[in-house]
Amino acid sequence: MSGPSWLTGILAAVMIATAAYCASRLVIARAQRRAAGRDVDLIHTVMGVAMAGMLVSWLNPLPDRVWAVMFGAGAGWFGWQAWRSRQAGRVPAAARRAGRPPHPHHVPHLVMCGAMVYMLLAAGAVAAVASGTHPGMAVGGPPAAGRFPLLALVLAVFMVGYVMWQADRLPALARAATGRPGASVPVASLAFSTTPGGGLASQPAAATPDPPASPDLPASPALRVLSPRLAACCQIAMAVTMGYMLILML
């Protein structure tokens, strides 16, 4: 990958931090016996390490083809999950009102896994041309090495749209985290007594105490790591980095 070294280093550090965060989500979810979303956290952990290695070569612990096989398997998994979700056919009304589906959004993860396979194989082909191991491909230069710039452009546009969609969801995720769809105003109750003339006179009753406000985040520090907003921010960071890497391949 080319580009400003300072920006590459920052993005690689962000990807390492993202991978560490997703790994912590896996550990906490296992301790809390929560099975939902483990596949997403697992693929994001692997993806963060792989992208950091693509940005800074000495951070890469595995060959590109090994990573490509892993993300190919991830694409197959999320493709199957997306097909199962489509077969399910409907989302419960309670989940729609809460602003969250009963299952993760599998199609974006499918596309991101496919984008990783594309970038890893294309980068490997370009490296092979540069090293002279594929002399037959060297005539055409890097574009002939299987980079398919149009595909990179389509995937980059998808990442931009995915970032915008996730950013638009953040307020809804914040409201879902508090458990309060809107602020409520307490109304003072009135007690009524009979006057000597037979009428009704209103008297202020004792004020009903306001219900305790729900915290913005779960009380347990461990559960705060599982916040949907943090997960969405993690996915935004990954999509931004992936979009930048795809643009460099145009």
Number of domains: 1
SS-derived structural category? mainly alpha
Bin the helical content: 55-70%
How many beta-strand segments?
2
The outline comes out as globular
Radius of gyration: 26 Å
| Arrangement of strands in the largest sheet | 1-2
What are the segments in which pLDDT stays under 50 over at least 5 consecutive residues? Answer: 93-103, 133-146, 180-194, 204-219
**How large is the share of residues in beta strands?**
under 5%
SSE arrangement, N to C: HHHHHHHEEHH
Alpha-carbon distance between the two ends: 12 Å
Q: Can you count the helices? A: 9
Largest sheet: 2 strands, antiparallel
In short:
With 250 residues, the protein is mainly alpha-helical. The protein has helices at residues 5-31, 38-55, 64-88, 93-97, 106-131, 135-138, 149-178, 221-224, 228-248, and strands at residues 190-194, 200-204.
Commentary on this structure:
With 250 residues, the chain is mostly helical. The protein has one domain (5-179, 215-248). 64% of the residues lie in helices and 4% in strands. The chain contains nine helices and two strands. Strands 1-2 form a two-stranded antiparallel sheet. A hairpin with a 5-residue loop joins β1 (190-194) and β2. α5 runs antiparallel to α7 (149-178) and α7 packs antiparallel against α9 (228-248). The protein is globular. The model is unreliable at 93-103, 133-146, 180-194 and 204-219 (pLDDT under 50).
